[in-house]
Automatic annotation (TrEMBL):
<dbReference type="InterPro" id="IPR012340">
    <property type="entry name" value="NA-bd_OB-fold"/>
</dbReference>
<dbReference type="Pfam" id="PF00035">
    <property type="entry name" value="dsrm"/>
</dbReference>
<feature type="domain" description="DRBM">
    <location>
        <begin position="529"/>
        <end position="602"/>
    </location>
</feature>
<dbReference type="InterPro" id="IPR001900">
    <property type="entry name" value="RNase_II/R"/>
</dbReference>
<dbReference type="Pfam" id="PF00773">
    <property type="entry name" value="RNB"/>
</dbReference>
<protein>
    <submittedName>
        <fullName>RNB domain-containing ribonuclease</fullName>
    </submittedName>
</protein>
<dbReference type="InterPro" id="IPR050180">
    <property type="entry name" value="RNR_Ribonuclease"/>
</dbReference>
<dbReference type="InterPro" id="IPR014720">
    <property type="entry name" value="dsRBD_dom"/>
</dbReference>
<keyword id="KW-0694">RNA-binding</keyword>
Amino acid sequence: MADYSPAETGIMIDSVTTADRDDAIWIESDGDGFDVWVHIARVADHVTTGGRADTEAHRRVHTRYRPEHTRHMLPAPVVEAASLEPDRENDTFAVHLRLDTTGQVVSADFGPGRLTRSWIMSHGEAADAAANPDHPLHGTLALALRFAQTMLSARRNAGALAFYDLLSGFATNEEGQLVRLDSAERNSGYIIVQEFMIAANAQIAAWAVREDLPILFRNHRLAAVAGDPAELRDELDSIAAAGDGTAFEMLRTRMRMVARAATYGPTVHGHHGLQLPAYTHATSPIRRYPDLVTQRIILAAALGHPSPYPIEELTAVAEHVNERVDEERRAKAEYFKQKAHEQTARHAEAADFTALPYKQFSRVLQFAVERGETPAGLAEDTARRLDARELQLREFASVYLYGRGEFEPLRERMNRMLADEPQQAQSIVNVYLQDRLGGPVSNETNVLWTVEDAPGFEGPLFSAQVVIRYDGERVDSPKRLQRNKKEARNQAALALVAKLAGLPDLSADAAAMPRVEGPKKLLVDAAVNPAEAVQIYAARGMVKPLTWDFVVDGPSHERIFTCRAEGWMPSTGERVTAEGKGPTKQVAKTNAALELRVHIEVALALGETGRPPEA
């Protein structure tokens, strides 16, 4: 493309039905790095602060998209005037990022911009162009996809719960919930748009923090019992590799239960779902009021003017938006709850449960458990769905915790299943607490863990105990001993849920031998798992401190984990290191442990520790 300005060029990538286009992207390589532009519709020019359109937008908060109609936040003439159009010169709010070859942002500039050359593409068309060398925009979109994948990998390596599985149509949203993508979004074009917008919003927020400029930050925290986002993402990757749709749905339900809603505020509290220290919404000012407010503030700052929003007014806007969004969420939930209740009562009377789609079956099941009345055939159909691995976490937990009468044999089976898969027990604890609290669970007040080393035993052992508190009540689990902290927590949670459900406690402690002082065998038995063997050597003081570091590379469907293990042998001063790779963290760790174990045992066999080896 001859004779053009990259700073005024962009591609608008949206769904086929989009009418209000509020962003465009462009990227070019420049020797030792990249230049990225995100153009955002300059809506602030078309909506006077405090005017009729602004007042109505403040009241509506956002555009609502419904199957039958779209209820715009702004009046139609404003939407038409502010939307980006390819056949005209557009005034924009421009975000210009300069990146090095690794994807690190070197500099970021913001302010008034122009879009004079642009194209409209659907997500699918953008994906096709990125893959087709003959397309006129192939170079730009292929580079855009490379940028998006680089930014995605960086966030994943930082621990973000970032996941796209375009084959199954599942992806995580910014709040860490697993959502289904429309068929038109199941392509790399969707990923390009998401990652460009996240990058722009994150850099705007970071700039505002550096400038000590209050804007409407987007803050998010995970529930206390959500677990490590990286572990949740690993679980997602494993399920995606296996192609298990039922497991996807179960994990989707679990993640929905532990995810908290993000909120707006003039102060920064971080965004855990995206694993970013600061974040905002600024790329959709046509359809989201917080984006319009933030655009006004950033534009004023770029022009050297004071913020149009005193901190008290900005706080009031944030509170209003949060309240309105929460009201809509509750109203929507209540509406569907009432509709579901009426439909559920009809289905329960029909008693033909095998023919019910899962969503309707789950409502009937909850209805029956809450009432303590089990229609004929429901327990049998629940067992059938359990055997077919259709039963999801919410329904499993309801029957396990509260089912009575005809559900008793099934509850006993569930108890044995949990003993075989104790990692599910912590999720059951969360269901129980959410039922009691009627809302989010706090790690500070509701779930208290004690996990510590268990001295006095051969090999590394850890003790775990969990206590839950709610409404003045307190329930303690027994302490459980295991070879690693994660399994100790799983067994303690398993004991607790059995106690809550009034079922036999099938949790267990690891076999442990009391530590005997005196001459000790140096070499760990060859049959012991490599990672456990290395941990035993560390516990004996033969190598310390022992560290395990992980990095992950590759697309979401072909993740490669690299584990680097490192330690120091005190008696010789020798530093020992090893590296292992694999499709999961556990495989990578095992491979690294295999190599590290050889280093340690060779040193022991040669007597480098100053102690004679044992035959």
